[in-house]
What we know:
By secondary structure, the protein is mostly beta strands. 12% of the residues lie in helices and 56% in strands. The protein folds into two domains: 25-136, no CATH class; 141-228, no CATH class. The protein has a 21-stranded mixed β-sheet that branches.
Amino acid sequence: MALVEAKPAGASTSSSAAATELADPTFVVVLDGVETPIREGTLYGSSGGTVTVTAPGHISAEGLRSVLVRGGGGDGAGAGTTARFTLCGDAAAEGVGAVAFDRCGAARAEGAREVSAVRCRAAEVERAGKVTLERCRDARLRGGGAVRAARCRRADVESFGGARLARCKAARLDWCGTVEVEMCRAVDVTRCGAVTGERCRVVNAAGCGSVAVAHAEVNMLEEERQLQ
């Protein structure tokens, strides 16, 4: 009888553990080349800086030379998680719901619902829902829902549903749905839907549905020439 009763008891324990895992997901942190699961507490970098779980499902990294955070749980369990990086040299997040970078050297995010980066030297984002960038030197964005970038030196955007860029020195957009540019110095747009905006110095467009940028030098190019 004891063995028979142990099975449902074990199943109940397993279900309880699974529920706890979803409610309180574990992050995996790669710090100083060492991969460590963390659900609570603080990790310390060898050269200074910390990684802290500030609340269940929320993690913060500050002052680290290099750090990677992966969302735990799998199968979409990381959708409600958040990660924030401040003053890190090389910061990356994978499978985390919402990610924020503040004054980092290199910022990289993949598979996030929402990403923001402010004053980062380089930002690279892949497969994100919503992306917001401000004052980043170089931005490379691949595949997402909507992106808004302001005051970036170079922005390279590909395969986004909607893109809005303002006061960027150089911008390249390819395979985007709608594009809006304002007060950008040089814009190259290829194979996008509707391109609108105003007060840009030069807009080169090829293979787009429509182009209507006011107060700008607009050059309609053949697609082959633009892609060279």
